[in-house]
Structure formats: structure tokens, C-alpha cells
Inverse folding.
């Protein structure tokens, strides 16, 4: 089999050893007789999430007083999660730097009044706007860039 390297957004190249381990655990996770897909996330056999959280805390130096959330969904879901969690006064400022920032802005408009603090859309998002002297709304809940 020829290995193809995928450099697309999202998926990443993984070592063959990772695929082999995943394949083995698909049939029998750690000698339990069950597939990793069959084990309840509430089961004592399911330490995967705890190990993953600990690995993240170690790799990213996340302090114990921060909560790590594991959520499903992709980038587009995050575009609604940001305003749903951060808009309190109903206002936010957005810096439009490209296609994805524009998508985030369009989604956030559902949750509050938005101000475009800076944008390079007029020049086809060919540069990052100068953010050294932005007019940020005084009552803005957050700035999205």
C-alpha cells in the first residue's frame, strides 16, 4: 500500500502504528472482549478520556483550575459556540481576516449586534488588517479575530 500524506484542514497524517493499535482495539479493547466502540463512557474500562485530558494538560500546561471540555462538532459549530458563551451585553467586535472569519461573523450575527472593527474583505482578504488602533466598542463583550 502506498502512503499518501493528507495536508488538508482537519485530518492529519498518523503513523501506521497508531492505525494498527486502533484496529486491534476495535475488536478487543485492552482484553475486555469488547470493542472500544462498545464500551460505555461511564464504564471503569473507559479511562481514555482521563488519559487524554491529562496528556493535554501536560502538553499545553493547562492548570488544574481550568476545565477541559471535549465537544463534538467542527469549526462551524465553534462559530456559534463563541457568541453563545461570550455575548452578555449583546455586542461583539469582529476583525475579518478571511473566509473563516467571515463565516464566524455571519453566524454570530444571530446572537447579538456586531461591529466590524477591521476588515481586509475589500482587497479579497489579501492581508491582515492593522489592529494597532482599532475602534473597539466600549460595551463589547469580546473581540473576535
Amino acid at each position: 500500500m502506498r502512503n499518501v500524506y493528507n495536508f488538508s484542514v482537519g485530518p492529519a497524517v498518523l503513523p501506521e502504528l497508531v492505525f494498527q493499535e486502533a484496529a486491534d482495539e476495535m475488536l478487543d479493547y485492552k482484553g475486555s472482549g469488547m470493542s472500544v466502540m462498545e464500551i460505555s463512557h461511564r464504564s471503569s474500562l473507559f479511562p481514555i478520556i482521563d488519559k487524554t485530558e491529562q496528556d493535554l494538560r501536560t502538553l499545553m500546561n493547562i492548570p488544574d483550575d481550568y476545565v477541559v471540555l471535549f465537544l463534538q462538532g467542527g469549526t462551524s459549530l465553534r462559530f456559534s459556540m463563541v457568541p453563545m458563551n461570550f455575548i452578555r451585553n449583546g455586542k461583539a467586535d469582529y476583525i475579518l481576516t478571511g473566509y473563516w472569519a467571515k463565516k464566524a461573523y455571519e453566524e454570530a450575527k444571530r446572537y447579538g449586534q456586531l461591529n466590524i472593527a477591521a476588515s481586509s474583505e475589500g482587497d479579497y482578504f489579501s492581508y491582515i488588517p492593522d489592529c494597532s488602533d482599532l475602534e473597539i466598542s466600549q460595551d463589547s463583550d469580546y473581540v473576535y479575530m
Summary: Residues 48-60 form the longest helix (13 residues). Strands lie at 91-96, 113-119, 143-144.
